[in-house]
Amino acid sequence: xxxxxxxxxxxxxxxxxxxxxxxxxxxxxxxxxxxxxxxxxxxxxxxxxxxxxxxxxxxxxxxxxxxxxxxxxxxxxxxxxxxxxxxxxxxxxxxxxxxxxxxxxxxxxxxxxxxxxxxxxxxxxxxxxxxxxxxxxxxxxxxxxxxxxxxxxxxxxxxxxxxxxxxxxxxxxxxxxxxxxxxxxxxxxxxxxxxxxxxxxxxxxxxxxxxxxxxxxxxxxxxxxxxxxxxxxxxxxxxxxxxxxxxxxxxxxxxxxxxxxxxxxxxxxxxxxxxxxxxxxxxxxxxxxxxxxxxxxxxxxxxxxxxxxxxxxxxxxxxxxxxxxxxxxxxxxxxxxxxxxxxxxxxxxxxxxxxxxxxxxxxxxxxxxxxxxxxxxxxxxxxxxxxxxxxxxxxxxxxxxxxxxxxxxxxxxxxxxxxxxxxxxxxxxxxxxxxxxxxxxxxxxxxxxxxxxxxxxxxxxxxxxxxxxxxxxxxxxxxxxxxxxxxxxxxxxxxxxxxxxxxxxxxxxx
Length: 510
Ligand code: HXC
Description:
Blueprint: H1 2-16, H2 21-29, H3 35-42, E1 49-51, E2 74-81, E3 84-91, H4 102-117, E4 122-126, H5 137-153, E5 159-163, E6 166-168, H6 170-177, E7 180-184, E8 189-191, H7 195-202, H8 208-212, H9 214-217, E9 226-228, H10 231-242, H11 283-290, E10 297-299, E11 307-314, E12 317-324, H12 335-350, E13 355-361, H13 368-372, H14 375-388, E14 393-402, H15 403-408, E15 418-421, E16 426-428, H16 432-439, H17 447-461, H18 465-469, E17 475-476, H19 482-492
Parallel strand pairs: 3-4, 4-5, 5-7, 6-8, 7-9, 12-13, 13-14, 14-15, 14-16, 15-17
Antiparallel strand pairs: 1-2, 2-3, 10-11, 11-12
Helix pairs in contact: 4-5, 5-6, 12-14, 16-17
The structure holds hexanoyl-coenzyme A.
Hexanoyl-coenzyme A is lined by residues 96-97, 99, 129-133, 140, 143, 166, 168-170, 173, 193-194.
């Protein structure tokens, strides 16, 4: 009996070594952890249950039958994060560069099926070179099945992809279907084809970082939702991140008890808005002062900074915050900001996370570059996302809410549940100067007359009261009471029930 037990331990020890000590050392030398070290850091201590440790590939081409490594380049299983069940798979770069064979795919598929069946989040840790080249179409078939399951699970369980090394081919397409992608700075890359192929096909010379590093995907392409300095920081932040997400679209949101009083007032907010309406202020100050303990997990921080998206909590329960940022492009809505916010709104709606929208928006960005880039369609994405969302929607207009952007930003007209305005709100078709120059064009030569018209327009329209008179704003509130009012409104909306008409699925302007 003892011999059998010893044999199991020996086989386990071999599997745990993956591609061998030399490759593990090389991995460490690059500043990266191994697949198992990553899983251990991410999950609660001793909670990992590994599956399929002894799975081998079945390839017999290119001498592969003599080159078998148990586990075949991916570590899979489940464990807990802060006590909640999650499923994980982590690519092992030390085994054939983490590349995907048919059996490697079967391991991932098993975990995907379990996560969906048992309604728990799935987290993929990627450090892999795509399809196992020696396996050819068998590997492509494996990817296809992974992609299918990614798609079926979308909107049912949260799917998170962590990019922790060079990733190519299928190892970027699967993450692209998931809800969130986070990267490690300087050691992780995402590209469909690597720099060598790029050089061959387009004769472009480009480094891995320039082609698909975190510096590109968090700023230019917006593929990644965030980046962290190293493996450890990323994994610890992901433990924090998971706490904002429900386990599935039918689970309750997780509650994190807080000592932050739901009735807390914040007097400093009464002076947040500058006297000069063209002077910016930092919307993040309002977010941090509103949410529990100032704890805000921002997404896509370095892309389309004119809109802020992220998770916070109010009275222990997660909310999704969408806020115009006057510090960047005066908070204007452009194509990038619209796409960024639309995707976030849809995630929150899938998973029953209430939306709190903070509005200070001068409108949509005019100009040929925006129009040629499809601003109409991208802006419509955000409008569509807000309009279809059935989660509780609370809106606070702090200053400007002009034109179409007023409608878009979770207004009453697209089923905002509770719409508040600060006394400093200006809800109008456009700013006073622009409006006067159009409707009093004949007076343009007379500065005094124009100034009088501007003053008149400001007095009449640049306030919350015209909208409040019509019931478009439920109440004009004191800025210092914002947290209290939002907490109360969320409580009041806790049992909100709205159903959209039956449809196979909608046709959002993609
Ligand atoms: C088999 C692979 C592999 C692959 C890497 N390796 N990629 N083995 N299939 N796809 C192996 C290498 O042979 C090497 O083995 C080890 O992994 C480490 O690779 P290196 O190249 O030494 O590492 P590095 O210099 O860090 O470069 C990593 C890399 C590069 C950027 C990922 O290996 C690379 O470009 N690989 C190919 C990427 C690719 O084109 N994949 C196919 C995509 S098509 P040894 O034994 O030396 O340690 C695809 C189809 C799906 O994925 C598309 C769906 C839409």
